[in-house]
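Box 3.1. Reading complex inputs
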Amino acid sequence: MFSSSYKGRLMPVLLASAALALGGAIALPSFAAPDRGQEYFPLQSYRVGPYAAGGTGFFGGFIDYMNLINMRDGGVNGVKLTWNECETEYEVERGVECYERMKTQGNPGPAAMNPLSVGIAYALLDRSTSDKIPLITINHGRTDTTDGAVFPYIFPLLLNPWSEASAMVNYVAQRDGGLDKLRGRKIVVLYHGSPYGRETIPIFALLSQKYGFEVTEIEVPHPGNQQQSQWLQIQRIAPEFVILRGWGVMNPVALKTAQQVGFPADHIIGNIWSNSEEDVRPAGAAAVGYIALTDHPSGTEFPVVQEIIKTVYGANKGNLDDKSRIGSGYHTLGIINGILNVEALRIAQQHFGDKALSGEQVQWGFDHLDLDDKRIAELGATGLLPPIHVTCADHEGAGAVKFQQWDGQRWVTKTGWIQADRKLLRPLIEASANKYAAEHHITPRNCAKTS
Amino acid sequence: MRFWLVAALLAVALLVVPRVGNTYLFDAILTPFLALSLAGVGLNLLTGYAGQISVGSAAFMAIGAFAAYNFNLRVPHLPLLASFALAGLTAAAVGIVFGLPSLRLKGFYLLVSTLAAQYFVQWALTNFHWFANDDPSGVITAPQLAVAGIDFSSSAGRYVLSLAVVATLTFVALRLVHSQTGRNWMAVRDKDLAAAVIGVPIFRSKLLAFAISSFYCGVAGVLWAFAYLRTVESDGFTLDLSFRILFIIIIGGLASVRGAFFGAAFIVVLPLLLSRIGASFFGTTDSGIAELVEMILIGVLIIAFLIAEPAGLVSLWDRGRRRLARLLSFVPAPQS
């Protein structure tokens, strides 16, 4: 193909560069770090559509943290983190397509899937199990997947919906001075009309029986921008507290409508998906005094957030376009999600060696994820996330939350970590998981045996 | 000639594709394509042939999916395919009920009454927990897919199962539209008064169209839930999905069984193609921007296409084929 003159011009260049490369390799052997491969994190993100505020914040935080690890530490024990994004618009079909597209990428395959969508997570339950890729549903997901014996690859880390319900009731009790004070009280649960919203219906019913309070559960149809009739019903019931299990636009509308019917904001308690700045700012003055539960407090004072600002945003590699969103609720949740994924990888590396690991190996890391106060302090995340100890049988690992109040400008943390009554919930989780196992002919693994 | 072409295509799809394809091809493209095609065929029988417009297709898919789930759960030793058929019949029965207004209403008014079906079914499925076997979140999961002892749980297996069901039902649909029933439907569509005068039973034809169309949508819903998504909630069968099925038959070609397949391919494959091209163009810069560009492109394509070819992809295909046949003059041009 090449004419001889072209070849003639090309050859010296080739020779020279080969010589240079060879010389470089001999002279500077310490320059090249040992190539331990790359760990691949597929991101099924959503940056457009009705839930884009959550998607950009969460995936922005996750990417920022992975960038921090790559830039500051050169990866995890020499293994660089890589990722790419596939837009789901929070739609199940898109999420499934993204999963199928991404699951074959990376060498040796994806470390874990983090779709941040209940609907997509449901569709991936049996796919990710059969493909041996951990599925992380931080703070959400299907409660009975907490039972790691039946669902070895599914991890509803930190807080499952039932723990959340229990912790909210415990908080109300604490405010009143004890669980025995709950008797005779009236509580309304206002929930989003979706599987996510309905997940806690039986648990509030159970808790109301156990503690003797009266509960009314009211559904708000998706997306929730009309709530007049629901709040008029609440006005008639006149409860002491309203528990708000919202998502997206439903939250500010609830707060505004509450103000219209004269229900005090400081007696509305928001759940884990009703606790971000994006949920309260649009409600303006109606949100002042509103209380919400969180396990990912917002703020930029945490050392890990400071380092991200310095290292990542300092080098202009930050993922958020709007810098004022750094340290907002969704962003810190993304950072926490990054911490949990990276630490699981680190723990798995202790077991399998410092190299890029397959999903099956990273699953071992999640199964043994154990972050105590000391480790969390080393990570610069004290106060950002509670200690978490995942085991073969318990894929939630924490179940503690704080409560915060909106003062019109920022969230003010009001409590320390409040625990859920996980002992009460565990038998129910196991019963539900076993029902699933029986329906799907799954033989649960023996968690007493696995080390 | 045509028969052999279709037979060859089916043979390739049934024998060759499962061997060479990967799970992405089956799970992300072919299985949803088949399920939506079947729904498109169903809606085309009602809208394209019988002239009754409907935006309730997703509701009937939901009925099919939940019915099949419950038949499998509550009737012991029921063969899988029997539960598919029963699910279709359940959807057909509900379809007749919601078809009753069509005896009095036409056009936009009928559209509104099928909208009622869409909302009512979703409401019923979420409010009565029995339908989802008291699952706290109201989701159903697919049972094991096995027919006569053969397991179809793998990705390729799900595709083969869907293909077999879709091919059989498509064959029936093709026979149906060329039968007396099909001719009655077209007579009702073109001028119901004239049809009544020459003795076409309007009442029966319309209800039959609703029943059969709902049967097809119901079975499509079972495939959508069991073969494709595997775990679904009633909220997955939204008005949005109904509209997509309506677009499938409009883009593919009204009153054409083949058109549903063309339309489904367009609706399923084109966005994926565009998003992949977009990903290679924009790289990892911002998936949000790539997504918006993609939406704009799809919208423009649909509008441009409908202006250039209002009779749908199927007529584009036929014209192309005729032109090709004229070029290769040894093949006689098909008459249509």
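In summary: Chain A has a mean pLDDT of 87.
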